[in-house]
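Students often ask why we bother encoding 3D structure as a string. The short answer is that it lets us treat folding as translation between two languages. Here is a chain of 711 residues written in the first language.
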Amino acid sequence: MLATIIPFISNETGVSNQQVKKTLTLLSEGATIPFISRYRKEVTGNLDEVQVGEINALFAKLDKLEKRKESILETIAEQGKLTDDLKTAIQQTFDPNTLEDLYLPYKIKRKTKAEIARQHGLEPLAKIIMAQKETNIDSRAKQFITKEVKTIDEVLQGAREIMAEWVNENQLARKIIRSLFQNQATIKSKVVKSKTEEAERYQDYFDYEEPLNSCKSHRLLAIRRGEKEGFLKVKIRPPESIALQKLNKLFIKSDYSGHIKKAISSGYKRHLAPAIENEVSASLKQTADEEAIKVFSENLRQLLLSPPLGDKRVLAIDPGYRSGCKIVCLDEHGGLLHNVNIFPHPPQSQTAMAMSKISNLVQQYKIDAIAIGNGTAGRETESLVSRIRFKSEIQVFVVNEAGASVYSASSVAREEFPEYDVTVRGAISIGRRLVDPLAELVKVEPKSIGVGQYQHDVDQKLLKDSLDAVVMSCVNKVGVDVNTASKHLLTYVSGLGPQLAQNIVDYRSKNGFYSDRQSLLKVPRLGEKAFEQCAGFLRIKNGISPLDNSAVHPEKYPLAEKIAKTAGISINQLIGNDAAIAKINFEDFEDKNNGKATLIDIKKELLKPGLDPRKRARTFEFAKNIFKINDLKVGMTLPGIVTNITNFGAFVDVGVKQDGLIHLSNLADEYIGNPADFVKLNQHVKVKVISLEINRKRIGLSMKDVKQLIP
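And here it is in the second language, the structure alphabet:
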């Protein structure tokens, strides 16, 4: 199997056979993608995380295809119809559609009209007609009249049913029609008339037609959602006349009777076109799913890698009107110090009391920053806080609270804070998101975080697998402090998982902080293999070895010590010593196990061990006196925060409880192919209001000709 799969993967990914082989070997041995790309560069020829992931995904698809081939070969062999040529054709194909085409004539069929005609002995007549040598078919047909098929018309109809099935099962015919669908088909949608009012949100697709190959993934997913909900009827077809013309050319030489032409038309309309439509539709859906998941994954990556505030004391506010604003005070590690309710907004409007309470709490708990959720009453609460005169400099941040309610009602939140209700848990989550977005967001199911497009319409398993891979990638990119991390964060560390993460936390609770990485081997069920996979991504601050707070893997400690010894100083003296490191020629330490890439990584860690790759959090202020959509006017220029990125543009929060859309065409004066190449999630931007539909809650924005104050 590998002998044929490796060259195929190599060709698809553009890496050598040897790189593919060695990567697959590492994966089969239980190595994770983050581990392989970070600590096995010499083995893979310096493949990055994306390349290793592509190889892994392709292998999974091909492995599934190989199993399907085995099943098909076994089925055909049991029928006694497996020839050497057919076996070779099946074994050598890597295209699922071609594989199913090869298998189609041998599939066990339900009782079709063609099968009934065969049982009535009409297949020989169908072969005679298809041979196109007889000029008097009616005369021939008389010979096939029986008590089951009593007239010439019934006999010929049965023969045409068989020929129509042959047309459908012909590999070349399917290839021709498949190509025609891909190149000339149009997608049409019409509203179900009885549901016109209910289907208002799909009104763009009430009477819609577009060439299939130009239909963007987000439009396809929207149309398919409307169809699934029963509001739209959808059809995908190429021009029928061209399809029949191509099929006639393929099958007809001298159709004296006209029966072949009728069979072709019947076979195309009843069998071939619907089958290829289903196939093409499924393929397009898969492509659209993959594109949507790619967008979602990139948004999630940016969100997880959002700048953290760091170890600061935070006062977090979950805003509200009637039920008040829930306040929590958190220590440097996110621990809850205090919680209370205030009621600054209508109907209670206890503004002065609320401002005084916030001011006192800031002073009492030595607060460094305030985090305000961006949901209901968020703008009003931000405005209230901005009027408070604190005795020390307090940074105020607006925090995206999408998914906080999901977390607060989850088993994870109940386990963390069993004695508090959902309002307290939600406020804690808002505050912790500011301190360390990654550590907090891993507790929320990714698709509940509120980024991406059509996430509920795509393949849910593919979505989950992709998003889990992104979370793992981000967690391992940043690194995890093993002495403070929650089990939820540890779960995503390379080589761990829920059980080992729990064991690490339990061991820490019982025995105190870990003093070095080697002590992880004392954790129950954490063996040498798991240690190899996880150790480089776990950090221990102020431990026995300074290397334990770096991304240098324990297996490379001897090399780091050797480098320090060559410099004539200890490893403690070498770390962070720019002058000493500058004098070292790292190329002197290259060998078959320690390549240039690994030595570059070690050098970076010696210079700045455990450096967090994320930037630092920055404060943001919405435009004053703008609180609701009715406050907006076309032509206004406003500050905003990018909250979501899709294939068709970017959504921006300008502080009016309804995000506006910067369409792809309004991002810049030059052509922008992918919005993600131009803007990033949580980016602070300035936008101009170019359209307003207040009744539909639609805000059109533009960044064209708007000077961006913050790069």
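Translate back mentally: The chain is about 45% helix and 10% strand. Keep this in mind for the problem set.
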